[in-house]
Protein: Inositol polyphosphate multikinase
Amino acid sequence: MLKIPPHQVAGHQAGNGKLGPLVDESGRFYKPLQGDERGSNELKFYTSFSSDSRIPEHISKFFPTFYGTQLIEASDGSGLKPHLVLEDLSIGRVNPSIVDIKMGSRTWAPEASEEYIQKCLKKDRETSSLPLGFRLSGIQIYGNKESGYWKPERTSMQNLPAEEVKLILKKFVSSNTLTGMDLQPDCAFAATVYGGSTGILSQLLEMKAWFEDQTMYHFYSCSILIMFEKGLALEGQNPGGQIKLIDFAHVIEGRGAIDHNFLGGLCSLIKFISEILTAPNEHKSLVSSVNGVN
Amino acid sequence: MLKIPPHQVAGHQAGNGKLGPLVDESGRFYKPLQGDERGSNELKFYTSFSSDSRIPEHISKFFPTFYGTQLIEASDGSGLKPHLVLEDLSIGRVNPSIVDIKMGSRTWAPEASEEYIQKCLKKDRETSSLPLGFRLSGIQIYGNKESGYWKPERTSMQNLPAEEVKLILKKFVSSNTLTGMDLQPDCAFAATVYGGSTGILSQLLEMKAWFEDQTMYHFYSCSILIMFEKGLALEGQNPGGQIKLIDFAHVIEGRGAIDHNFLGGLCSLIKFISEILTAPNEHKSLVSSVNGVN
Structure:
């Protein structure tokens, strides 16, 4: 039985007669193949990448597993349509907190059409992409059973200055997200989610080392997903912090150069996460007695 | 006595009634203060940077020393004009080989005028900047007393694909640059110029570590100069490989984010230099018996 993914925070979304991805119960994610060259390009990337023996396993684990394509009933009722069959990244997660970060200060490839370049350039200039090298594309932060998720309007996240992006990335790992929305985040889970030898920062650094070296692909307009389970963190267990790369409709060949555009944004993101780990309580003195969710 | 700098490879050049920088015999470099906001911005940068206590000495050494401004006779005969007084970077050098590399895939700051942005964007798209994250802006490679310098047309250097940029960076540290121009470069000085604990790669990595951390300045349209003395290399002495940052007319405040645009280009350049060091003789089998200059 196919259904609408419960934890999608960005991208085209199914429902209300719209075309969007679907998931099944066996852990597969069906993404409609876009009819234009974006679809064929994303399929080409998955096909090439999934059989590319040059990709080490500690890097391929950051990408969704690819299971080919399949004709299934599209979510908009338009009949059988080709879909990419991918790993459902939220499988096994109960109440995941997720942020989708679109990488790079430039979201267009050099050989894109003039019209597409102008459209992307305008958006890159109007959002955080240009100043920060990435933009927050969507987020959901789990509060608790009663309050559910904090899931702000996607457009409200995209053009924030550095200090507010940092605040969001602090709230992402805080226990006082919902009831204490106007208070300074407590960063209660910064050390267990972002820190540690298997935490988010370590994973980002592992990805960075690969991007400093690989000249095979340039990942324009691709996103990093950061996910973890706040429920587990609250119980003192490993919160399962994980990063994944998604959205490859605009990947091109590297042609002998590293992907400096993605890498620059990645280093920028790493700097934000590092600062939060180094000084999680920069503003905490104001609200040290408040703890909203626990 | 002021004269035209003998070793300038890029930027506005004095001579034939044109306005350009001058040098004196005491090691000072006089750069005409551009009349528009580029001039005031570069002066603002030098003034702020040279007194900024947050800049560690192992980083400030990569920047020209700033001695203030001075009214001197302009090189175009237009009378007394304000000039930035800077360290002459080629002082003490006899026959320097120099390459000027304009950094970043984007040479325009977010707040530049629309007209300026469009002009830069066009050039970034037409040159190596977009694919490589930097472009070669000018070069001179010393051959020997008889042949002098190889100094190709600046425009011919700016839009090369990755493989040809690598070839130029190999020729830069080769002994067969001039007489063996069509042959594969021998990379005879790669290890002593690019390699070693004080070589170019080490310096670039030192700069990279700072750029991964600093959120004070974003260096749009700034260049890295790489210099060394082939004469010393030929004598088996330390060739004095050195990098310097120049051209700060488009520096802006960092506002809490790292300079991902410069850093991306820097990582790209580092990858090229590393590859040359790792495999200097990738194509050498073809020309192993040829050595043009020695």
Remarks:
- The two ends of chain A are 36 Å apart (CA to CA).
- The CA atoms of residues 228 and 241 of chain A lie 4 Å apart.
